[in-house]
Description:
The structure holds two protein chains of two kinds. Chain A is an alpha/beta fold.
Amino acid sequence: MTYRIIAGGTLWAFADLKQLMAKATPLRSGDVLAGVAASSAEESVAARMCLADVPLKQFLTEALIPYEADDVTRLIMDSHDATAFRPVAHMTVGQFRDWLLTPVASPAVLSALSRGLTPEMVAAVSKLMRNQDLILVARKCRVVTRFRNTIGLAGTMAVRLQPNHPYDDKRGIAASIVDGLLYGCGDAVIGINPASDNIAVLSDLNHMLDEIVHRYDIPTQTCILTHVTSSIGMIERGVPVDLVFQSVAGTQKTNQSFGVTLDVLREGRDAALSLKRGTVGENVMYFETGQGSALSAGGHHGVDQQTCEARAYAVCRAFDPLIVNTVVGFIGPEYLADGKQIVRAGLEDHFCGKLLGVPMGCDICYTNHAEADQDDMDVLLTLLGAAGVNFVIGVPGADDIMLNYQSTSFHDQLYIREVLGLKRAPEFEAWLQRMGLTDAAGQLTHHGLDHPLLTILEAS
Amino acid sequence: MAKDLQAAHAARLPENRNRALTALTDARVGLGRVGASMPTEEVLKFAYAHARARDAVHADFDVETLANALEAIGHRSVSVRSAAPDRMTYLRRPDLGRRLADDDRERLDALQTEGVDIGIVVADGLSATAVHVNAVPFLAALLPLLHSAGLTVGPVTFVQNARVAVGDEIGALLRARLVLVLIGERPGLSSADSLGVYLTHGPLPGRSDAERNCISNIREGGLVPPLAARKAMWLVNESLRRQLSGVALKEEEATLIGAAAEG
């Protein structure tokens, strides 16, 4: 179906919904690389005007990627909840934006709506939104998940402690863990990106994390960020796995390039659930995503990268994850060229995930060949803190020496807590107090120089 | 004494730098804090490391110096460009970095080589600095190994603004049985000069990354060039013997290394 609009005395035409969505997307290098971006600034705004008039219902009949060709499209269509959709079923995309910004769209209303929305609807409305709209609406979406603590409560923000080491040296990893804990980090997860994919090494790291969490009775969960099949392998060998990790994307072909199918993800979740290791809840999955992965894998089907990304959240939410993390600036400048594009993408991803009912966090990050620096990360961290992000990443000094990119530091999370008054997951906050690391207000009080947690180093 | 030291630390900023941690990892642990924030010294150290990495990304590729150094060890070279016209375009358009500029393709084709065992491509990639520092030491170690194995080697081809896959096109034009691409890796804060070497058997445009083998982190302080050359030679021999490269070869390598570790 062709979409047309007259704007500024010009007739603009768009061949189909897929093209309309792509051209309505705020400029980013990945869409230019894919050849789907608007050819002028005017065309982009004309596309947005045209998209504003499209009924939300249209997304239920015009699939951007054919139902027959893609299991993510099938997942989206088959799991759509028509009853939940009813309150907004009569709206256009533009009307939906207006409605989302009103107080009628309360946290409870948005929570009830989430299963009635498809990723394409959510991506479409985000394209009409300014950054402040993305913040305002996301802030109203509450997605609370539990394993050994409670993540996503209003006024809280958790941190993944990311203690990576270039050759998985356990003492080096332990040093980063101790450092992070002393800064009050680790409530989202203590999660290692291993350098190795050898199952014996992975199992050893997993045992080490399990030992730390249990010895010090830390109300948090651990994760080795390895392929889902490796986690299943560990579980089969009796390794105490808390969370099962996987990178996922919004198309079947891209997921294939990651070596996963929806069935394998289901197996991974079942395996983790079988261990019954959660104490306050059963959210056992940890997913990572990021704009550009579909194009990078040649699996984008001509769909813009932001819409592909939103479709990845439909994959995530089918498996009730504890945490989902958009690794926003990791992929490089060919997909998100600079600080402005990274900031915009981070806000879009967080908004789309939250509106779909996904527990979104963000790895606020960049690589050295992007036009970005730590100032841009400060901006995005501040905006996502205001938007109510469920968690961010904590890397020693913001410098990941294994993955060779820059994220946010233990200091950065302290900064945003101080500016916005954000608390940690309540169980973890209470533990920090018991350990004498924080006061009743959550402020760090201990210098950490002779803290009992330093004994972690002796054991490792 | 320890107490005094602690008191001294506590008395000045950063009051809580944790030295018990810093010896255990290169990660930026134990930095101390001023209020919630990073101490000035650490902010500036970080900024310096980032500046060095940025400069490596944008450094000009000094082909002439490298070509002279190669000539000094008796090896000829040729210089070409990718289809990316400048550095900023290169960074945003990986597709252009994987292809040769049209006139350079014709030039290489006109060389009409009769076919060689090994094609060698030296590409700036994301860090010309890495190539400037490590390419010649690596080749100085590798070329004698190749020659003494009786393998023929084509002219070293320098490519500006290039990605790994450009080696497929060059290897095909040189009629090489396999191609080695030496390329500057994406600079990190701790190393801006890390070189990667990618091996592809039967180079042809359209080869996938799963059909390559990689040796990464080649630099002083990482995998030193002479050792990297020996690893590369092992891969070359195995690749030619089995007539393949990529995942299948990698699995065998892992098994051999695993067996060596157990034995």
